[in-house]
């Protein structure tokens, strides 16, 4: 069949499977399977695709139709201006998390300052690496409970030319960390335990449970991190967290109870309160 016909078939399969973005997902999968560029879909639309190559592409389409995320199928995901490899122990970065990056950058008066950053529950390293890509003289430390996640994050630092300014290590939140930082960020697990079964299959079946489950009310990781902020942050240091829908005010109250001030709540592109930012007044 031609590339045009194959693309139409892939889009129709995903549309019938109830995928929200069948055209976009089909393009990503065909680009990957057939080593195409976006322009090729126009310039090579009538090119005949060999049967084995078409079968290879349609096999990926079937995985997406079964609700496996595109990023998991491809093995990597774009975030901010960087490209991140995934593994089974990393949460797949999502555009909502870029709200945290934007919130931090908006609060930094001098992006060339030699800032020290800490990312708790770093996963792929997405937040920390995105920030370092914008802060040329900053350095960072990323912590994750999973050795596989730490391995992925370190690989992503090298993948994006940032390995010289960042270190990743396994750890249980901030346990054992004696340094103080200018910026502390986190996208911790925040889904209430009882809500996990009702999540979309792309999340429930493919993201690691430990990166989702925030305890009975979804706030347990925030309580742990908030209690550590006064000793982790330099005076005037900045903290910023991703939060789940409906959690922003509660998380803001948790950090304010630890003496942080200048609290701000920022929305993602969908208008959902997605990030809590505050400064250490101590």
Mean of residue pLDDT?
Answer: 96
**CATH 2nd-level architecture of the largest domain:** 3-Layer(aba) Sandwich
| First and last CA, distance | 67 Å
CATH superfamily of the largest domain: Vaccinia Virus protein VP39
The percentage of residues in β strands lies in: 15-25%
Enzyme class: transferase
Protein name: Release factor glutamine methyltransferase
GO molecular function, one term: nucleic acid binding
InterPro entries: DNA_methylase_N6_adenine_CS, HemK-like, Methyltranfer_dom, N5-glutamine_MTase, PrmC_N, RF_methyltr_PrmC, SAM-dependent_MTases_sf
Summarize the structure.
The protein has 282 residues and is an alpha/beta fold. Helix content is 38%, strand content 20%.
Throw out a few tags for this protein.
282 residues; alpha/beta; Rossmann fold; two-stranded antiparallel sheet
Note down, in words, how this protein is organized.
- This protein is α/β, with parallel strands linked by helices and 282 residues long.
- The chain has two domains: 64 residues; 202 residues, Vaccinia Virus protein VP39 (Rossmann fold, 3-Layer(aba) Sandwich), CATH 3.40.50.
- It is 38% helix and 20% strand.
- The protein contains eleven helices and nine strands.
- The strands form two sheets. A seven-stranded mixed β-sheet has the order 5-4-3-6-7-9-8, sandwiched between helices. A two-stranded antiparallel sheet has the order 1-2.
- It starts with a helix and ends with a strand.
- It catalyses: L-glutaminyl-[peptide chain release factor] + S-adenosyl-L-methionine = N(5)-methyl-L-glutaminyl-[peptide chain release factor] + S-adenosyl-L-homocysteine + H(+).
- This is Release factor glutamine methyltransferase.
- It comes from Azospirillum thiophilum.
- Belongs to the protein N5-glutamine methyltransferase family. PrmC subfamily.
- Methylates the class 1 translation termination release factors RF1/PrfA and RF2/PrfB on the glutamine residue of the universally conserved GGQ motif.
């Amino acid at each position: 069949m031609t590339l045009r016909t194959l693309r139409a078939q892939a889009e129709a399969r995903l549309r019938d499977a109830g995928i929200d973005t069948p055209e976009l997902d089909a393009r990503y999968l065909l680009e990957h399977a057939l080593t195409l560029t976006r322009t090729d879909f126009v310039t090579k639309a009538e090119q005949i695709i060999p049967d084995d190559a078409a079968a290879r592409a349609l096999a990926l389409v079937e995985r997406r139709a079964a609700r496996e995320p595109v990023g998991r199928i491809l093995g990597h995901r774009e975030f901010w201006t960087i490209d991140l490899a995934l593994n089974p122990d990393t949460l797949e970065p999502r555009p909502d998390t870029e709200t945290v990056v934007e919130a931090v950058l908006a609060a930094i008066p001098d992006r060339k300052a030699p800032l020290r950053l800490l990312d708790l529950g770093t996963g792929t390293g997405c937040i920390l690496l995105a920030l370092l890509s914008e802060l040329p003289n900053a350095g960072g430390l990323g912590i994750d409970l999973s050795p596989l996640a730490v391995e992925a994050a370190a690989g992503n630092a090298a993948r994006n030319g940032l390995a010289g300014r960042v270190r990743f290590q396994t750890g249980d939140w901030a346990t054992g960390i004696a340094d103080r930082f200018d910026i502390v960020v986190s996208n911790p697990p925040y889904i209430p335990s009882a809500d996990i079964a009702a999540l979309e299959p792309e999340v429930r079946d493919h993201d690691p449970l430990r990166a989702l489950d925030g305890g009975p009310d979804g706030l347990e990781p925030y309580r742990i991190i908030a209690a550590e902020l006064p000793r982790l942050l330099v005076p005037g240091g900045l903290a910023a967290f991703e939060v789940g829908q409906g959690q922003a005010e509660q998380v803001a109250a948790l950090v304010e109870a630890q003496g942080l001030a200048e609290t701000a709540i920022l929305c993602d592109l969908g208008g959902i309160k997605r990030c809590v930012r505050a400064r250490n007044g101590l």
